[in-house]
């Protein structure tokens, strides 16, 4: 086992696995640690927007996702009360995809391993190791339980909302808002559905996304205060909430539910300081928003791309330059995410009683997403991958905003 690492990445899913992969592809010695057995499913949604799909393509991984039987989604149907808006992505642009996390996370992990990353799963990070005011490694324990230390000049926390690294370095939270919604979802077979369908009505939202194995993910998001409707019998609460939307009961008339009903009520909104001496945060560890906008995965991919560039630039130039590069990465993350965050909060807080207002909030959020997609960095292109002909690559230099 290699003992001398240049980077330790804590957390091996949407943020951590591609970050480790990109660093290893740059020739660095990387340790990737996760406490889960990998690969495995994860209690999350999984719609990947075109900005995220573009990165999968640039990394040489989109083909693998599609070959795993994940449908390419180009049509979107939005219903706000009785108003219906249908839209389609151009043939030349990247599609949306909604791979099960067991599929997506396995592909990301395999790519990291192929790039030379050393992976330790079922291994818990206990906290950072400090040396003269800098993070210089981590304390961790594996299946045997004994704590040991591994050192590296950079430690990245891609360890999700309850990040141990964030807690260990004392990363402050800012621009926070409490959980505004609670989400409930299940997988169904026998639903004829080729589009991403999103519905808003009476304070609630529902989404239906086609995923692997001919199934759809159907979820409902209700105001946080309505959680009690699901207490006692989560399956009945979910079914009632889903079928309150016009036409949904008929659409699911001959469908069978293929999974238990899952739920998540802790959906906080925050930014966390994401850089410091020898450390940085990526993905949900550094920023989380209500999943209404379905953008956490695409943002985690963007973090991976940007942080890999910052670490490469900084490591070569010494500790001070490294800290400056990590600070610049975190400032870029905040700038790219601020607009989407603000408009997503406004939509999550809306009671959807006025269809015109809900439509306007949806339009503003979608404009903010388009703006965020124009911001740096462009996806790191794997040398073996040609871009999709005519595809608009989010953040590509020709479309960069003047800062
Ligand atoms: C209900 C719900 C629906 C969502 N729907 C969507 C959607 O449709 N589209 C979308 O883009 N986003 C969606 N999101 C958001 C998206 O899932 C997240 O933003 C994304 O998974 C973040 O990835 P991550 O790698 O940062 O964190 P995570 O996926 O949380 O991974 C963190 C990893 O760190 C590991 N870890 C944590 N602590 C330790 C430790 N101490 N030691 C070792 N390992 C540790 C964990 O085991 C885990 O594997 C949704 C989220 C929720 C909750």
Give a brief rundown of this model.
The protein has 403 residues and is of the alpha+beta class. Helix content is 33%, strand content 25%. Helix 2 (50-58) crosses helix 8 (296-317), helix 8 (296-317) runs antiparallel to helix 9 (319-349) and helix 9 (319-349) runs antiparallel to helix 10.
Structural overview:
This protein has 403 residues and is an alpha+beta fold. Helix content is 33%, strand content 25%. Strands 3, 4, 11, 12, 13, 14, 15 and 16 form an eight-stranded mixed beta sheet that branches. It has a six-stranded mixed beta sheet with strand order 5-2-1-9-19-18. Strands 6-7-8 form a three-stranded antiparallel beta sheet. The longest helix is centred in the C-terminal third of the chain and has 31 residues, at 319-349. It binds flavin-adenine dinucleotide (FAD). The site of flavin-adenine dinucleotide (FAD) has 36 residues, from β6 and α8.
- Give the bound compounds: flavin-adenine dinucleotide
N→C terminal distance: 45 Å
Which spans have pLDDT < 50 for at least 5 consecutive residues? 384-403
Please give the count of helices.
Answer: 10
Anisotropy-based shape: globular
Question: How many β-strand runs?
Answer: 20
Largest sheet: 8 strands, mixed
Helix percent band: 25-40%
Order of helices and strands: EHEHHEEHEEEEEHEEEEEHHEEEEEEHHH
**What structural category arises from helix and sheet content?**
alpha+beta
Strand and helix map with partners:
Layout: E1 7-10, H1 16-25, E2 30-33, H2 50-58, H3 62-67, E3 75-80, E4 83-88, H4 101-114, E5 118-120, E6 124-131, E7 134-141, E8 147-151, E9 154-157, H5 164-169, E10 173-177, E11 181-189, E12 196-201, E13 204-210, E14 216-223, H6 234-243, H7 248-251, E15 256-257, E16 262-264, E17 269-272, E18 275-276, E19 279-281, E20 287-288, H8 296-317, H9 319-349, H10 355-374
Parallel strand pairs: 1-2, 1-9, 2-5, 3-12, 9-19
Antiparallel strand pairs: 3-4, 6-7, 7-8, 10-17, 11-14, 11-15, 11-16, 12-13, 13-14, 17-20, 18-19
Helix pairs in contact: 1-4, 1-8, 2-8, 8-9, 9-10
The structure holds flavin-adenine dinucleotide.
Flavin-adenine dinucleotide binds at residues 10-16, 33-36, 42, 44-48, 124-125, 158-160, 164, 183, 264, 267, 283-285, 291, 294-298, 300.
């Amino acid at each position: 086992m290699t003992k001398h690492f240049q980077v330790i990445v804590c957390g091996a899913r949407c943020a951590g696995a591609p970050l480790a992969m990109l660093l290893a592809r740059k020739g660095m010695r990387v340790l990737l640690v996760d406490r889960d057995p990998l690969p495995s499913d994860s209690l999350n949604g999984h719609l990947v927007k075109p900005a995220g799909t573009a990165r999968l393509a640039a990394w040489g991984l989109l083909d693998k996702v599609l070959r795993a039987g994940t449908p390419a989604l180009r049509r979107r149907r939005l219903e706000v009360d009785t108003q219906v808006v249908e839209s389609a992505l151009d043939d030349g642009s990247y599609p949306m995809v909604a791979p099960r996390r067991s599929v997506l996370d396995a592909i990301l992990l395999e790519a990291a391993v192929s790039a030379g990353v050393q992976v330790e799963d079922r291994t818990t990070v206990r906290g950072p190791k400090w040396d003269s005011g800098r993070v210089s490694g981590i304390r961790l324990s594996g299946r045997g339980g004994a704590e040991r230390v591994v050192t590296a000049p950079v430690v990245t926390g891609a360890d999700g909302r309850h990040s141990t690294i964030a807690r260990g370095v004392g990363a402050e939270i800012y621009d926070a808002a409490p959980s505004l919604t609670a989400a409930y979802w299940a997988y169904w077979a026998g639903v004829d559905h080729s589009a991403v369908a999103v519905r808003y009505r009476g304070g609630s939202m529902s989404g239906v996304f086609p995923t692997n194995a001919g199934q759809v993910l159907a979820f409902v998001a209700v105001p946080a205060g309505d959680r009690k409707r699901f207490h006692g019998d989560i399956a009945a609460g979910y079914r009632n909430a889903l079928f309150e939307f016009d036409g949904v009961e008929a659409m699911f008339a001959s469908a069978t539910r293929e999974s238990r009903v899952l739920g998540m009520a802790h959906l906080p909104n925050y930014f966390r300081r994401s850089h410091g001496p020898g450390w940085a945060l990526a993905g949900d560890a550094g920023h989380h928003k209500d999943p209404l906008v379905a953008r956490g995965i695409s943002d985690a991919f963007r973090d991976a791309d940007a942080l890999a560039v910052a670490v490469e630039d900084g490591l070569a130039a010494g500790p001070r330059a490294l800290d400056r590069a990590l600070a610049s990465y975190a400032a870029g993350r905040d700038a790219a995410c601020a607009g989407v965050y603000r408009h997503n909060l406004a939509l999550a807080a809306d009671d959807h009683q006025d269809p015109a207002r809900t439509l306007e909030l949806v339009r503003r959020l979608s404009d903010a997403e388009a703006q965020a997609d124009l911001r740096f960095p462009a996806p790191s292109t794997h040398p073996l991958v040609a871009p999709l002909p005519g595809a608009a690559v989010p953040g590509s230099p020709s479309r960069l905003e003047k800062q």
